[in-house]
Amino acid sequence: MTTIAFIGLGIMGAPMAGHLIDAGHDVVGFNRSRPAVDALVERGGRAASCVADAVHEAEVVITMVPDSPDVEEVVLSPEGVYASAKPGALHIDCSTIRPDVARKVAAAGVKLGVRVVDAPVSGGEAGAKEATLSIMVGGEAEDVEAARPYLDVVGATVVHVGPAGAGQTVKAANQLVVAGNIQLLAEALVFLEAHGVDTEAALAVLGGGLAGSTVLNRKAAAMRAREFTPGFRVDLHHKDLGIATDAAREAGVAIPIGAHVAQLMEALRATGHGELDHSALLLLVEQLSGRDL
Amino acid sequence: MTTIAFIGLGIMGAPMAGHLIDAGHDVVGFNRSRPAVDALVERGGRAASCVADAVHEAEVVITMVPDSPDVEEVVLSPEGVYASAKPGALHIDCSTIRPDVARKVAAAGVKLGVRVVDAPVSGGEAGAKEATLSIMVGGEAEDVEAARPYLDVVGATVVHVGPAGAGQTVKAANQLVVAGNIQLLAEALVFLEAHGVDTEAALAVLGGGLAGSTVLNRKAAAMRAREFTPGFRVDLHHKDLGIATDAAREAGVAIPIGAHVAQLMEALRATGHGELDHSALLLLVEQLSGRDL
Amino acid sequence: MTTIAFIGLGIMGAPMAGHLIDAGHDVVGFNRSRPAVDALVERGGRAASCVADAVHEAEVVITMVPDSPDVEEVVLSPEGVYASAKPGALHIDCSTIRPDVARKVAAAGVKLGVRVVDAPVSGGEAGAKEATLSIMVGGEAEDVEAARPYLDVVGATVVHVGPAGAGQTVKAANQLVVAGNIQLLAEALVFLEAHGVDTEAALAVLGGGLAGSTVLNRKAAAMRAREFTPGFRVDLHHKDLGIATDAAREAGVAIPIGAHVAQLMEALRATGHGELDHSALLLLVEQLSGRDL
Amino acid sequence: MTTIAFIGLGIMGAPMAGHLIDAGHDVVGFNRSRPAVDALVERGGRAASCVADAVHEAEVVITMVPDSPDVEEVVLSPEGVYASAKPGALHIDCSTIRPDVARKVAAAGVKLGVRVVDAPVSGGEAGAKEATLSIMVGGEAEDVEAARPYLDVVGATVVHVGPAGAGQTVKAANQLVVAGNIQLLAEALVFLEAHGVDTEAALAVLGGGLAGSTVLNRKAAAMRAREFTPGFRVDLHHKDLGIATDAAREAGVAIPIGAHVAQLMEALRATGHGELDHSALLLLVEQLSGRDL
């Protein structure tokens, strides 16, 4: 049994913390809004009143917050994780943030004797609930190994991909591919519908060939039904694509389709669909094809 | 045992005809270049000296040729399939061609008492050899059912998607999705390499999450190794994307990413890579990122 | 004074025919709808009851119709221009059509002893009314010189750009550039408005520098006022971009931005704005930015 | 006669400072590399040994440096402009930087009693030498009027476009439009050349119609001749497009073509052409069309 501070008990964080409790750990949770903490206590965890309270006796600290500035505040501020963490504590940041911020956070941790890994996850709410997340981990090999037992509790695929920040870089690539796959499926669906094709049959055959994808397997039925309850929200995917396009520019890499999809996600958000599932890119294709009238 | 005329014994056609022989059918083959016919005879088939010779006593005629004009010539010309086919014969066109040409061919067949289905395939040379093709079939329901026993011999997924031409429409959508998936994977790989990430590990984790795809499973290792032996050639995929963008324009459907990928495939071909596997889109991304120097 | 048959008295054709009358020529007009012919007679021209009637005694035949199939019908059909034209007549096709169709028409004319030039125009309704059109002419040098006196009556810039079809090729390039310039101006306007900038002042300074363009000079004020009366209709520009992207594919040329703009024009048309001026691309940018709510 | 500190005597700054000397002002120049300062002295100006030395008795301070971090250092650092400027001095920043940094600089100036305007310029080296720059000015109306006499010395079009930062926003829009216009012209040229058209004639007619632009007038001849001596460097335009795409994202505005062109400029730079004139986008189009072989 390990004492684990879990900061950020949202759609993703709550079920992840729950699995760690189920695995026998002593989980002390903190979240800005109190009901999420209460839910954790009902699940068998303990409540903390602030970050410092959660962290000060933890051997492992897991953070799962929305964006780079959130991580900077929660971890680096005077009331943050590193101000109260025990020397030798292991910090696992599961948030999806900028690779450069992840490296900055890791460097700050090292100075204070905290071991840090960046461990963003893929798989969405379903993956979090089913403990089948894919987790891409950046950091020192021994720290990643130290984190692995906890990550294995919430994920099905846990892979060490490189040094500090590498997890975030891989997550950025992941988000480009996922957004692109959704958009391609959306274009294919609208194209097939416009031609009067039976899309259920068509998707079966597409899925059986080289066009098959996890997006098709998991999202196509809901897209055909115009069911866009998140899942993973457009607003967050838009944020992630901003990270990815910035990281590509930083590296001098051309990502023509990635950048194009980022514009489409931007447009989807701008048209008021930020709260929908990212598969709502279908709505944009319909709109651009005059099929929403 | 059915007498089957098989016209077009190329990379795809030869193994497909072979499977039909193995399944006990009497396969009479014709190909413009003689060695392909000789190879069929060695496999246990019979040789025809021209289309008419192959077709005149066949109950089933299968055509597998490169492009729309080839189908028009092989099927509709005075020396073509329909001039010699027996009344009631079943014509299965496995070529990938324009949906409007498929509809025109089907209409011509119906006038002459030939039953016609369009049945383009997905899965490439490997799928043809392993008899695991995905086959999207357009035509009258009873004709599709008549064709199914033969298609089941060469394919793992055989689906009736709609009336005449619908198979080609679905194939066009398939080619858009496949090209897009390859391009996205290429961008992700160059992005990850530029950031110094271990791409083998990264692809493992991408494949385990929502970014997973058949393209990633089948193509990523060769792409990492810069191994671009076809497989499916850029020239052909370029042709197919022309069909897809035309079909989208005809239907008034916007396919922003599809059209963009078509331009990239065009560029890949223009830069002299038409003979490589379509996964060579990676070379274009490298070139655009200055990583080919 | 030359007897000129003028076929196609629409928004562009009517004022062009009028200028030729004003210049002292004997203009015999035909149009599918009769009121356009009556208007020409009032202007001082003569009425023809059919193409043959217009053409049979003409030394010069000018055609100005919407699209490639229209030209093929009006010119090549048994009741068309070439069936009735005098040997040695000069045919000036001012329509905007496919370069390959222009070459086919020219070849057909040559066989029958008709001299043919393709002479598509740029400048829109205003240019036609003010006789300030830009005219890009393809054909044999001596035929182009023979056509020049008539073209000078309706245009301010008349340039011989190459052999048969070359005028259409240049027009295709023209339409790519114009559509792109409009789209860029639309993006700039929405961007500036979203940032609260005084766009009238901003456009003044953009126009004074390297961002200046004829599109900015002629279209920006109406775009700021959301005034989209054509001018040149989205439907026609969409048709022209289809010609341009096909011609690029035929030549193996990558036109990434041109193809992208063609998709946006397609989307604008699909969303029901085909009858507006092409500067309505602004509406699409607003829609994609959620600023149309 | 006004005492003017001029910081940054590069390709743009040197001729601008020269014009101010010619207009009778007392110009004290500073530049990191000494030869540029010596050249100013020869022209009739005075040399400063550091920023503080240049600024401490100046009524007007003009800065013309490459990028946002340069402005922050030159202006805001302890050895910077604001640490030494006289109360009531007028600071005119002609650099092209991020609008948010411009606003931050202006706010810092106001606190210290310095009046600040952002006044980025368009027109390139030629415009600087000929004193025909377009200048887009952001700031308080009275400060802009105070700056106008000095800006009129170096520019032909000086326009107040809004509050602090607005000049930079307009410059960002300007750079999007310019890059797009160059790219469109490059695509048109390669397209026309591939079709064997006489491009000199074609450009004459394009320039006379709705496709006309300042880019065409000033750049087309050099592009036809493959002459890419800057002018304005790809590296700088790439930087500016990063500012523009960030500013668009910040405002929630979709700029599909702008973002696409930014990718192409990125690719041009990545392929080793960062030092060429931005019209070298033509090389990229040639490369993508296989016409560089």
From TrEMBL, chains A, B, C, D:
Its EC number is 1.1.1.60. Pfam families: NAD_binding_11 (PF14833), NAD_binding_2 (PF03446). GO terms for molecular function: 2-hydroxy-3-oxopropionate reductase activity. Residues 165-283 form the 3-hydroxyisobutyrate dehydrogenase-like NAD-binding domain. Gene3D superfamilies: N-(1-d-carboxylethyl)-l-norvaline Dehydrogenase, domain 2, NAD(P)-binding Rossmann-like Domain. It is an enzyme of class 1 (oxidoreductase). The keyword Oxidoreductase applies. The keyword Oxidoreductase applies. Residues 3-162 form the 6-phosphogluconate dehydrogenase NADP-binding domain. Keywords: NAD, Oxidoreductase. PANTHER family: 3-HYDROXYISOBUTYRATE DEHYDROGENASE-LIKE 1, MITOCHONDRIAL-RELATED. Belongs to the HIBADH-related family. This is 2-hydroxy-3-oxopropionate reductase. It comes from Pseudonocardia aurantiaca.
